[in-house]
Amino acid sequence: MAEATNRQILLVETPKGKLGSEHFKMTETTVPTLSDEGALLVRTHYISLDAANRAWMQGATYRDAVESGQVMAGGAIAEVIESKSSDFAAGDLVFADTGWQDYAVVPAKAAQKVPSMEPKTHLLSVYGVAGLTAYFGLLNCATPKAGETILVSAAAGSVGTLVGQIAKAAVPDCTVIGIAGSDEKCQWLKDELGFDATVNYKAEPVFKALKAVAPQGIDVYFDNVGGDILEAALFRMNNFGRIACCGAVSQYDGAPPSAGPRGVPGLIVTKRLNLRGFIMSDFPNEREKALKDLEGWVAEGKIKVQEDIIDGLENTPTALVGLLAGENRGKRMVKVV
Q1: What is the pLDDT of residues 192-224, one digit of tens each?
Q2: pTM more than 0.85
Q3: pLDDT above 90 (res 60)
């Protein structure tokens, strides 16, 4: 093997407040060797950055918590260098939890073979975790109907940009409203991605703004943030509304929130709301159909793919901190090679 070292980024301290680059450090070690049957040695190409990375530091979720001293966890598109599985060969591309490092040994059963395509980055964005999360959360969990009003929070982020466009592609005569954190992002959502209306949550009270842009109420809410924005949306939901609970980024970083959402049990009952939490892997039997639909919408120009690619493994910590601060438009990832 040409490279003699394996760069790794470790979580050196579990943050008690906001995450900073000082909570990580880069080390170098030897490239791991492959010994166990049913395992793969892979070379990381692109690391996916997601708000969930921060949640993993707080405790066990749908995966084990990341503890101080460990290689920071994260999914990636990687190339198989060596295989001890009959299902994979050297040169195959996979999506796997490699962590933030150049090389990793992963169980073959935990790696998902992905097609070779250009750009490879689409395997993390529209055809990867972002696109499939948006698709399943909106269409399988929130089940929007023709003519309904659909609200999306973190609408300029990796999942939110795709939720709005999928809604326009798949739901006839729907109205799509996006919540984002700047006037520039809000204008971009309307001008470039086809959102009907937007709310800048940093410039005006969300509840008041939603009354103006959705006077007839909201039928579907795709929630990426939780907290006060979820509270505002709940009060604007129509009877029998559906909420897809994808994330709670407002509560991942920093001190725990002191308020919001309030009045939830009463609202859920009186409005007969359906709130459903989910993760992408809940729908393995729907994956093929989802990818076919997404590929078709991209080919037809109904989905514009927005990616935010940061160069260099060493920049992964600052790239995650920036994502949590809302720097990105679309899917943020780190190019390793």
Answers
A1: 999 999 999 999 999 999 999 999 999 999 999
A2: yes
A3: no
The residue to which tokens 């793919």 are assigned: 305
Q: What confidence tens digit (pLDDT) does each residue in 110-166 have? A: 999 999 999 999 999 999 999 999 999 999 999 999 999 999 999 999 999 999 999
- What span, in angstroms and rounded, lies between the C-alpha atoms of 179 and 166? 16
Q: Which CATH number fits domain 129-281: 3.40.50.720, 3.60.15.10, 3.30.420.10, 3.40.50.300?
A: 3.40.50.720
- Topology adopted by domain 5-124+306-335: Quinone Oxidoreductase; Chain A, domain 1 (3.90.180)
Hunting for tokens 């972002």 — which residue is that?
130
Write the DSSP string, 264-326: HHHHHHHTT-EEEE--GGG-GGGHHHHHHHHHHHHHTTS----EEEEE-GGGHHHHHHHHHTT
- Say which residues have a Cβ less than 8 Å from residue 314's Cβ, sequence separation at least 6: 7, 9, 26
Tokens of 308: 């935010």
Phi-psi region of 260 (alpha: psi -120 to 50; beta: other; left: phi over 0): left
Range list for CATH 3.40.50.720 in the chain = 129-281
